[in-house]
């Protein structure tokens, strides 16, 4: 597909959506057991070359690289926010990049500079520059009689002209950050580490591995040690490496791989200098993320600013401000709408859903009134087993159970359907149409808690309106406490509705 003369942000998002792997192909690969492997990295290097860059060019970005099952994005946000505050006070670093995934409200949120998502026009400009460079380079290689297939060939499948969605954005981010003169960039891995598109960086400033657990079982393996092997792949000889305390199986693998790579891996406890710092939410997992973020920022500043000296007794003011003023949308957010209090969290794994439910329970402790849940997770059959943990987590906090439970799809609006930034070809369209997953969730929840009033609704907008209606019936001091969780797409769509157009 050519750029078709389009130049706007919407054109770019449409072209980007055309790079999604369709559901049918994902299924076929799954059945054939095709997983990301070393060839994925080889291909990324070819694409990088085709946009005129060598891996050594990425050294200029002074990359902080973060992998982990949970807390990657939060850790990255802490590190970037600290660097931001440091810059305000010292003028160093000049420009801070932050590359994260997935997006919550708009695709361009994944590529930030100095805290802000890149502007729509800039996104479109760089998007099509990369698009055209890739097209022309492939043509030129073919014209010279080079076989562009052979280098990145995987199992006889020729390399596509352009990489798939997430990898395209990774590639584009390098182009953007180098053109814009970014001198430190914080990168969240997409899936895993070893074979993730972000792992073409050879000399990061530092690598950080956040909490490990089970997720992406098909790509990474079904045990925490297999998963740890992948995440350990971002540690590089000559770069600082940090992690936090992990379950023993994971810790062992990380250490073993660090030894093999001759990397000194520092295992951080909760940083004692965080005492008195208002890290939100006030939960252990977030203090671990913050501790990792601090260590990564320190490692970067040690390289970028010769006058920076680590203070082991106390965090500098810029660090405290960075931690306290960090903005990381869709995680543990509270929004009050009259007699209705929304709690929004994008948790979508077993452990993080328990965590999110406990956080919600804590928030509910001081309020009276019914509790409502809006939940979805699309395209993961195992998600039905996540529900037990949530029921148990609420009970264990002495908060009883949800009175109302709503399962909906990630389709944003009842009338207009998906916002462009959320179009997703990777899910089974028939299952969305029939609300298959949602009916399974409903059946399971009714078995777990026969007293709950469970409903299945087609869209996020319908679900929100349903809960808003509940709030019309509460009296006096009561409020409806609502939790929206299970998927970042759900949460992003919900924030878009709750805050209208200005959610970004
Ligand atoms: N260290 C942690 N351990 C367990 N749960 C966590 C941790 N950090 C964050 N969470 C939970 O996971 C949610 C997502 O956090 P975050 O965006 O930082 O993770 P991520 O690793 O980037 O996840 P994703 O897979 O969505 O990219 C948070 O809202 C919180 O509920
Ligand atoms: Mg994930
Ligand atoms: Mg993330």
From TrEMBL:
Ligase is among the record's keywords: yes
CC cofactor note: A monovalent cation.
BP-aspect Gene Ontology terms: one-carbon metabolic process
EC number of this enzyme: 6.3.2.17
UniProt binding sites for ATP: 331, 345
Listed GO MF terms: ATP binding; metal ion binding; tetrahydrofolylpolyglutamate synthase activity
SUPFAM superfamilies: MurD-like peptide ligases, catalytic domain (SSF53623), MurD-like peptide ligases, peptide-binding domain (SSF53244)
Binding site for Mg(2+): 101, 188, 216
Required cofactor(s): a monovalent cation
Protein name listed in UniProt: Folylpolyglutamate synthase
